[in-house]
């Protein structure tokens, strides 16, 4: 289908197909049952489809939007066969994602007029935040961009150590202080260091505690204000990392973080080990924040730039 352009390399697309296999298999087994014995998309099929989408972690509100879109198609086309349902779902979900995601990007890019480009990464512990930072650093480094990491998650010694491991692995400098240091102070030092080294990208890790939203908000606001003393419009991007395998819990985390700070982009990780890939569709739609990266494997290359066409194509490929 020409609508779904083949713009990924075949290797990346294979990784994406494989990463979404569990989600796809689960979805199609449910969809097959939903339309069993039916040749026409009628009210019963739509009710069953609604249940399939909700149970696939697309989320209730987004599911209702998709059902409304399909009902409009049914009303317009008068007769819609169940054999066409997969094609229509692909088109309508891609159209829904278009409202938030440009869908054309397949490369790791940064704006040419922002140097150094400051990326602040937020998310609870355990979602793959540090791994995502490491993989991003690798991708930017591979493109010949100079990267500096800032270990501003100073509440866990393990967080600083993990980021150091990634810095060593990727071969990029890291700015860190001891555990318990002021996160804003680390961020300040990292930006000063990045400017002095003529860095292209500075990636700042932050603490992943959600037990007190007020404290989190104060802390992230302070980190931002201190960074702006060095680079007036920093951070240029606030990336929230969510664990896709947690399904509806990822929605809750997104709700908490978007209330605590201005999140500009999302990364959804661990999609390869779960049947909850539909969460990407729901989160993108409900929060109206673009999904920029998805994690579809353990390898250093398995963090991909999110492309809605390729994602939908892989999710609905029979």
UniProtKB/TrEMBL annotation:
Instruction: Write out the annotated subcellular location.
Output: Cell membrane; Cytoplasm
State if Ribonucleoprotein is listed as a keyword: no
* SMART domains named in the record: AAA, SRP54, SRP54_N
Q: How does it sit in the membrane?
A: Peripheral membrane protein
Entries under InterPro entries matching the protein:
AAA+_ATPase, P-loop_NTPase, Signal_recog_particl_SRP54_hlx, SR_rcpt_FtsY, SRP/SRP_N, SRP54_GTPase_dom, SRP54_N_sf
CDD domains linked to this entry? FtsY (cd17874)
Q: What class of enzyme is it?
A: hydrolase
Asked if the keyword RNA-binding belongs to this entry, the reply reads: no
Any one Gene Ontology MF annotation carried by this entry is: GTPase activity
Q: Which domain of life is it from?
A: Bacteria
| Purpose of the protein | Involved in targeting and insertion of nascent membrane proteins into the cytoplasmic membrane. Acts as a receptor for the complex formed by the signal recognition particle (SRP) and the ribosome-nascent chain (RNC).
Question: Could you tell me which PANTHER family the record lists for this protein?
Answer: SIGNAL RECOGNITION PARTICLE RECEPTOR SUBUNIT ALPHA
Quaternary structure and interacting proteins, as annotated: Part of the signal recognition particle protein translocation system, which is composed of SRP and FtsY.
Which family, according to the similarity comment? Belongs to the GTP-binding SRP family. FtsY subfamily.
What is this protein identified as? Signal recognition particle receptor FtsY
């Amino acid at each position: 289908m020409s609508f779904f352009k083949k713009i990924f390399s075949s290797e990346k697309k294979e990784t994406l197909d494989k990463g979404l296999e569990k989600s796809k298999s689960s979805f199609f087994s449910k969809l097959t049952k939903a339309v069993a014995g039916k040749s026409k998309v009628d009210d019963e099929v739509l009710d069953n489809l609604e249940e399939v989408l909700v149970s696939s972690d697309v989320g209730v509100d987004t599911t209702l939007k998709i059902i409304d879109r399909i009902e409009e198609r049914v009303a317009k086309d008068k007769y819609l066969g169940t054999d066409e349902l997969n094609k229509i779902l692909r088109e309508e979900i891609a159209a829904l994602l278009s409202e938030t995601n440009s869908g054309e990007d397949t490369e790791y890019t940064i704006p040419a007029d922002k140097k150094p480009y400051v990326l602040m990464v937020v998310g609870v512990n355990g979602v793959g935040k540090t791994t995502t930072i490491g993989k991003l650093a690798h991708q930017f480094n591979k493109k010949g961009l100079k990267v500096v990491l800032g270990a501003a998650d100073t509440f866990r010694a393990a967080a600083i150590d993990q980021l150091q491991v990634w810095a060593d692995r990727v071969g990029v400098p890291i700015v860190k202080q001891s555990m318990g240091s002021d996160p804003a102070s680390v961020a300040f030092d990292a930006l000063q260091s990045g400017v002095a080294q003529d860095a292209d990208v500075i990636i700042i890790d932050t603490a992943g505690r959600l037990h007190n939203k007020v404290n989190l908000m104060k802390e992230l606001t302070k980190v931002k204000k201190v960074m702006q003393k060095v680079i007036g419009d920093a951070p240029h991007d606030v990336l929230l990392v969510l664990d896709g395998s947690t399904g509806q819990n990822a929605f809750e985390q997104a709700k908490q973080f978007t209330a605590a700070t201005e999140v500009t982009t999302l990364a959804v990780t661990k999609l390869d080990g779960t049947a909850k890939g539909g969460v990407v569709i729901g989160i993108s739609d409900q929060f109206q924040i673009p999904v920029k990266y998805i994690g579809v494997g353990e390898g250093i290359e398995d963090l991909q730039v999110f492309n809605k066409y390729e994602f939908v194509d892989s999710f609905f490929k029979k």
